Amino acid sequence: MIKGIARVIARIIVEGFHRVTINLFDTLFGFLNWPEKKLRVKIWILEGSKDRPVLSPAELAIALGYAKDSLKKNFNVNLLPAKNGQFVEVLKVIPPGDVLYTKGGHGALKEEFKVTGNFFASHLSGTFYPVTAFVVIDIAGASGCSLGPLTDYVTLDPDGARSVSTLVHELAHAGGLWHVKERSNLLYRFKSRGNEVNWWQKNLFRGSRHVTYW
Predict the structure, then answer these.
(1) What distance, in Å, lies between the first and last C-alpha atoms of the chain?
(2) What is the CA 180 to chain-centroid distance, rounded?
(3) Which structural domains are found in the chain, ordered by start?
(4) Residue 47, SS3?
(5) The pTM is what?
(6) In a structure prediction context, what are the per-residue pLDDT tens digits for the chain, which is 214 residues long?
(7) Which of 103, 122, 190, 208 has a CB 3.0–4.6 Å from the CB of 175, allowing a cystine?
(8) If DSSP codes are grouped into helix, strand and coil, which group holds residue 40?
(9) Which residues are bridge partners to 40 per DSSP?
């Protein structure tokens, strides 16, 4: 729990620092979608029973392609792989059961301070800047989950990973955006969502610490 609290406090401080210093221009004028920025992502597919991945890397191709197009269109942000140049890999580590069967919503926040949060934190693709996505067996009450700026990761279950828009929807949450009621918006809660964003969403997302110039 102490480690989890320290992680959350550190992320809040770094997030706030970026929004009012390095990314101040985007925080104020992000709606201009200029200049081009970058978001680096790593997707780890976890292994379930009998050392079998919960899905194949190829099954994420549609979601990745949509995420690239959506982020470029809406925010002028290029989606790039973190570290070794591959977006998707199978994590060759046996995860605890609580990680494979994790929670969404308020339950996910509680998990951040337990075994689950420590596991995810120990397998991030980098500190503060990249976003790491973990594909698990099941997320109670959701097909994808993000704790926004409080963490550097998002989670997807196989249905969420195979869907067109869940990955980019969760990446948008990681960038500081929350749900809206407009069905045409990328941040609409349900999978019937569209692919539009409002001007203020551009400011918030481009001002995130995850969205960089380097």
Answers:
(1) 33
(2) 17
(3) 2-212 (3.40.390.10)
(4) strand
(5) 0.97
(6) 899 999 999 999 999 999 999 999 999 999 999 999 999 999 999 998 778 999 999 999 999 999 999 999 999 999 999 988 899 999 999 999 999 999 999 999 999 999 999 999 999 999 999 999 999 999 999 999 999 999 999 999 999 999 999 999 999 999 999 999 999 999 999 999 999 999 999 999 999 999 999 9
(7) 208
(8) strand
(9) 80
Q: Three-class SS of residue 49?
A: helix
The answer to whether 184 and 196 are in contact (CB under 8 A) is yes
* SS3 call for 33: coil
CA dist 166 → 1, 36, 91, 147, 195 (Å): 29, 23, 21, 14, 11
**Helix/strand/coil (H, E, C) string of 142-180?**
ECEEECHHHCCEEEECHHHHHCCCHHHHHHHHHCCCCCE
The dihedral built from the CA positions of residue 133, 138, 144 and 150, taken in this order, carries a sign that is negative
Phi/psi at 201 (5° precision): -65, -35
Indicate the burial class of 92 (C-beta count within 10 angstroms; 0-12, 13-18, 19 or more). exposed
Q: Confirm if 171 and 39 have CB atoms less than 8 A apart.
A: yes
